[in-house]
Amino acid sequence: MIIAAKLIILIVAILHFYFLWLEMFAWTTKAKKVFRNFPEHLFEPTKSMAANQGLYNGFLAAGLVWSLLIQDTLWQIYVGLFFLGCVTLAGIYGAISVSKKIFMVQALPALIGILLLLLHNFI
């Protein structure tokens, strides 16, 4: 169970490192293909705002990676739960305020990770 949880945490971290790259470094190029519903003329004016958002995604990814590196199993679970919880809340907010697709891409994998960590902890 813990191996599956760690794999999900790694996948969620990789996703958030991708979001960091997309929003910080590829906002006016590759992001246009990913965020097709976003008006074309707004990419350039929102470049610095997207970069700030990307930085936050980087913090989430770093926290998830940190949770994988902690030696103490209980603390590893606590830190993993915290950062997966942050990702889940961000995904739910994004689904409500922007697009329901965000729930599937961001919140659902994090919720699966939370479930796996809790099952490992209580089984």
Please, could you describe this protein's structure?
The protein has 5 helices and no strands. It has one domain. The protein is mainly alpha-helical. The mean pLDDT is 95. Helix 1 (2-25) packs antiparallel against helix 5 (101-122) and helix 4 runs antiparallel to helix 5 (101-122).
Outline of this structure?
It comes from Flagellimonas eckloniae. Helices cover 80% and strands 0% of the residues.
Helix amount, in percent?
over 70%
Terminal-residue CA separation: 9 Å
Work out the oligomeric state of the chains in this entry.
Answer: single chain
Number of domains: 1
Rg is 15 Å
The secondary structure category is mainly alpha
Count of strand segments: 0
Biggest β-sheet description: none
Compute the number of helices: 5
Reconstruct the topology from this structure.
Elements: H1 2-25, H2 31-34, H3 47-69, H4 73-97, H5 101-122
Keywords:
Membrane protein; membrane; transmembrane helix; mainly alpha; elongated; 123 residues
